Amino acid sequence: MSRADLNVAQKTEVKRLEDAMRDSFVTYVSDYFERLFP
Asked: Does the global pTM surpass 0.90?
């Protein structure tokens, strides 16, 4: 595996983590508001 390949894989992994965090945050916030305003 070349250094360039490793770099791309790392960027993809970071992007995937960011997306997962954003998704769970959005879910958390919408759940929270649903409890506030049933």
From this structure: no
